[in-house]
Amino acid sequence: MRYNPKNPYWFNRDRFVLSAGHGCMLQYALLHLAGYDSVQEEDLKSFRQWGSKTPGHPENFETPGVEVTTGPLGQGIANAVGLALAEKHLAARYNKPDSEIVDHYTYVILGDGCQMEGISNEVCSLAGHWGLGKLIAFYDDNHISIDGDTEIAFTESVDKRFEGLGWHVIWVKNGNTGYDEIRAAIKEAKAVTDKPTLIKVTTTIGFGSPNKANSYSVHGSALGAKEVDATRKNLGWPFEPFHVPEDVKKHWSRHVPKGSALEAEWNAKFAEYEKKYKEEAAELKSIANGELPVGWEKALPTYTPESPADATRNLSQQCLNALAKVLPGFLGGSADLASSNMTLLKMFGDFQKDTPEERNVRFGVREHGMGAICNGIALHSPGLIPYCATFFVFTDYMRAAIRISALSEAGVIYVMTHDSIGLGEDGPTHQPIEHIASFRAMPNILMLRPADGNETAGAYKVAVLNRKRPSILALSRQKLKQLPGTSIEGVEKGGYIISDNSSGIDRFGASAPAGKIYKEFGLTAEAVIAAAKELS
Amino acid sequence: MRYNPKNPYWFNRDRFVLSAGHGCMLQYALLHLAGYDSVQEEDLKSFRQWGSKTPGHPENFETPGVEVTTGPLGQGIANAVGLALAEKHLAARYNKPDSEIVDHYTYVILGDGCQMEGISNEVCSLAGHWGLGKLIAFYDDNHISIDGDTEIAFTESVDKRFEGLGWHVIWVKNGNTGYDEIRAAIKEAKAVTDKPTLIKVTTTIGFGSPNKANSYSVHGSALGAKEVDATRKNLGWPFEPFHVPEDVKKHWSRHVPKGSALEAEWNAKFAEYEKKYKEEAAELKSIANGELPVGWEKALPTYTPESPADATRNLSQQCLNALAKVLPGFLGGSADLASSNMTLLKMFGDFQKDTPEERNVRFGVREHGMGAICNGIALHSPGLIPYCATFFVFTDYMRAAIRISALSEAGVIYVMTHDSIGLGEDGPTHQPIEHIASFRAMPNILMLRPADGNETAGAYKVAVLNRKRPSILALSRQKLKQLPGTSIEGVEKGGYIISDNSSGIDRFGASAPAGKIYKEFGLTAEAVIAAAKELS
């Protein structure tokens, strides 16, 4: 059986994430050996070349079988936390005492660079808090980063920090050849069900290379023909480049019938489940295939000019609550500003260690981690629609994650309130000025700034429909009038005329004394004042 | 004696940083009591109001005595690490066995929100690595953030994490009234000279308020008149609002003569130092007052069209090395990409725990922390000119710190290499597309993209001269030709004509068959090809 994300069985696959470029060639090689059609021998040969399926950093939209886009450091471990959250949440909602249809692990490999990035500490603190027992992280402790030995900038005790974060920590001292140790560590990690596990695997970078092992020169550049030869000799590997010996092929091909048997087993289990739990099965299928329920958009509220003026952050909350009722994969939360961003789903409790079936996610003050976790949730299953929230100005804290949403086609909804100077007393550090312009410049982002209730509802309709583009909604703290002429349909067009002001100049001027012309065209102080008064 | 940053004595003052809005009113009240002219009783009364010196988050450019702008969470602790780095560096360079003229502490208060932010883990890992023994951080452990009890999102062991980061950790269990415990903790912290200290102070938020203490409702909003009354009664405080009783005034005013004595003592010590170590004293004074050495700009390299083509990242390294020779306060480094960003100063070693006199700072893969640490360095003394480097695309990781540079007038130089698709194999996650446009939209930023050697030198001249505006230099990985007509002076103008292409259309068209017009105006395929060939 070959990988096919449209086949419901694959929804329950274990997820493997290689954080940053970490072992990118390894990832491609494993996909190839495991029988993924997406990576052929030719693809391996065109590593890092134009048009290849094997770019320098794995991209989920380029290479089937690559789960997430993890190029920038720290994103991968954060995505993995999102994937593990999604599993825990869906398992809690859909598993039945007689049928565990959601039950998979999330594995991630991360290196020293990822460990140094603040985002990794944010998300690992959350993973410990949430008790994500099916998250297993391998920390490739090789002591080398691009600038050399980690002694120059990274001498903390990672073990102790992770124990502080509430993780189970295992140390594999010989990561180069200690296969039994590694197997035992995985077994131990699986036995610990209430905590995520960090397996610190001490390794030698460039293991086997006689002259370049344990040095930064193998970090981001090729060994070179001469050193490759020396390494082959050293490791006793006599085969041609890219040749996979028959016994290796045979070893790996065992997985194909094994996988087929597992698939048949799961399909039978799911067929049984579908009979007993019709509604849940239909919901779960829609989460697995991304099909939105018929008529979902009718749940969105509409307004008339007579509806009371309101802040778009409040109108947004009405939309969020309306959507959560009709979209089974809708979940999210705020970075410690839920009561300011107005993002609580009133009919649900908090997603927590012991209540993972709930849909309000409490991210704490961790904007960057929040965005990247949402990328992981969105890419777990196409029907999961995560939203996350903070003040609009703090998109600066999470911009790298937002860019990955755009690049990796993760339809995260960013609910960004307290737009502009309307924020008030918190002052200039909290007031977004340049942020709209900066996001309009970012490819594949929907930057939406609704003017009232209908436009807020329209913005949500656009955001939910665009499952391969993230949306940013800039929302106000202050009250805004409900305008005549706004509509959901109008917002969907991208631009539309709310009020016809076409009596501004639309001809090529006229010949007369200047004062007279200004007056004739209505450009007088009195006219400007009158127009301004009309608006206020 | 009153605070006067132009008086050299104040260069050696202890630095106090209140991270985020943390205790902002406390900070203003302390400045007022300590006799800072900048905060009068009237200023306290106009807290969070238009035009006041007491905005909702303290801003260094609004209120003399406020060291740094720390509104967004996590920035303050990062700034404090920069301030402590600056002290350790300057002490190592300028202190003599017979005269310790640089010798001060950096204190910072941070709360649960700052602890959750990834940036704080980044900088605290570095502070531990660098052994910043004169950095003392008070962690206000009050268990309340905006969304409520920290139980909902923050249950890690902060103590254990900080021990892992190489800090000395002390727990003050009664932070509300345990003054002796706090005094003892500070004494203990000062005795530990090879590690920074975290004093975890367990407190009750809103202590004294009978109905609102220990709840999120005192986090960001006023108690209200009724509860203020109840709190006054509860604490036995009978005085009018804003009234400072005589005995309190007297207690605080003790510091004025004490400070004068300390100042006289330091001035005498410095006068002695100046006699013995003339050159060092002159350098240190220029660091304290920000005066650039006469003729420093002559050190910048210049090029002719015959000079070899080169990547602007390499040309930048020539400038960095030239400037480090003539600017005593010039120091910086990269986030683990020194050999790619080309930022090493060849005549200096690494700033490390045991070699703090050196000027190459190794930030590790911690872009956000790096930017905020540089803000702290820049705001320690006007003559310190920090630069920091990563790939241009990773400004996304540090954008919040860059914005604070711009807002708080910290003239940090951001050396951002691997501009645009010219980066190559690392792929789209590493290629900046929208970044120039996004920074052009940010107020008070100098966004510079030099085209060759002369323009790179010009960009550095502009960056060094602008001590109250941060500069971002976007630099290439690929070789660029040295162009005729470029110059340092040209760059200083902001825009200038390198090559006169004014034979493009500069009239209102003409009447003739269209093909003929295109030909006459030189817009033919042949002409375009010829022009393109000339450029390539």
In words, what does this structure look like?
Chains A, B: Substrate binds at residues 219, 313, 340, 418, 426, 430, 477. Chains A, B: Belongs to the transketolase family. Chains A, B: GO terms for molecular function: metal ion binding; transketolase activity. The structure is a homodimer of 536-residue chains. In chain A, helix 15 links the parallel strand 12 and strand 13. The first copy, chain A, is of the alpha/beta class. Helices cover 40% and strands 12% of the residues of chain A.
Compact summary:
Two copies of one chain form a homodimer. Chain A has 536 residues and is of the alpha/beta class.
Main β-sheet of chain A, in a few words? 7 strands, parallel
Number of helices of chain A: 20
Most extensive interface between two protein chains, with residue counts: A-B, 81 and 81 residues
Shape of chain A: globular
> Biggest sheet of chain A, strands in spatial order?
10-11-9-12-13-15-14
Bin the strand percentage of chain A: 5-15%
Distance between the termini of chain A: 66 Å
Class of secondary structure makeup of chain A = alpha/beta
Low-confidence stretches of chain A: none
Enzyme class (chains A, B): transferase
Family (chains A, B): Belongs to the transketolase family.
EC number (chains A, B): 2.2.1.1
Protein name (chains A, B): transketolase
